[in-house]
Amino acid sequence: MVFLVLAGVVLVAHFYLWHRMVRSTTGPGRLRKALTWGFVGLAGLLAATFAGTRTAEWHWLAWPGYLWLALLFYLLVFFVVLEIPRAVAGSFLRTPVRAPEPVAVMAGAPAPAAPVEPPAPAPMSRRLFLGRTTAAIAGAGALGTVGYGLTSALGDPVLESVKIALPKLDPRLSGLRFAVVSDIHLGPLTGRSHTERIVRMINGLEADVVAIVGDLVDGSVADLGPLAQPLRSVESRYGAYFVTGNHEYFAPNGPAEWIEELGQLGVRSLRNERVEIRHQGAVLDLAGVNDLNGASANDGPDFDKALGNRDTSRSTVLLAHQPVQVDQAARHGVDLQLSGHTHGGQLAPFNLVVGLQQPVVSGLATIDGVQVYVTRGAGFWGPPVRVGAPPEITMLELRA
What we know:
Transmembrane segments: 6-22, 34-53, 65-84
Domain Calcineurin-like phosphoesterase: 176-344
Radius of gyration: 29 Å
CATH architecture of the largest domain: 4-Layer Sandwich
CATH superfamily of the largest domain: Metallo-dependent phosphatases
Keywords: Hydrolase, Membrane, Metal-binding, Transmembrane, Transmembrane helix
Strand order of the largest sheet: 1-12-2-3-4-5
Organism: Nonomuraea marmarensis
Oligomer: single chain
Pfam families: Metallophos
Order of helices and strands: HHHHEEHEHEHHEEEHEHEHEEE
């Protein structure tokens, strides 16, 4: 059902753009036929990208396919926004056709010879003028937006600095620093340099704890293992920790092989469990739960296992990939939840849609008494484009 719905949305989107960019800007003929077949090819490219980029042999489809997806999205946005101005402009461009003026002829005089003039070119119709103007504006807007988003997504993540006060935090733990990163999305569009840059930036923060909050990969260890190798160099005082995101369950062999691979790289996975972070003679509970998507594979989140039988006088920081998991965190007395998943919307105004499914899109908020910090993530999924939501690595400092 999900596949059918997505396929239907893609087909409708391509038909709408064909209507606005081809039918409304050309007359019947070879040009229209050529452009129509071009749109058919782009729809096929997108379908092949979704189906084929999960295997290494078809990774070459990722760049053209996902860039067209980004252009498709922003062309839709610009055309929809321009619908009302287009309709208003159309109402003002109605030019009435004037009848030719009669020529006076004297009785008995021969009729004047009509002047011989070259035929004037047919004026552009109102439909063509509006169609071409609208298409030009939408096309320029979409290309400019995607170009800007491309440089944002492929550039250095923004370093965000956040200080969070926890009411129960032992004063001796005040100043404990977490480097928080999520949604790295190692995949067909990222190289080893993507991971090396993230590791270099994390190490520059000199954090006490590194928290990798899910969606590290988009593929198997066989395909992407070399891209993850720089994680071996992550530096922190008390260790680096990882929890699964939904994309780990989309990997061809599931999350188990990545859990093992990360262990060999020195990154500990918190699988519905918790550890004690001892700092200056005080203790903080750091817990992690599996992603919600693990439930279909009997590997879902277990908050009782991760948070049960603990000393409730201690402050607890929970790593949970999706912000929506905060409802369970609140029932178990968690003080702070660190999440990712949303990408901050990645492609504005898509952030408005994300807000319908998650309680926090990005940044810090308090939900049911639990403080939740949601990072925008350091990578991207699908199009290598970020608009209004630059990639992020967060230095989070706890305060008593």
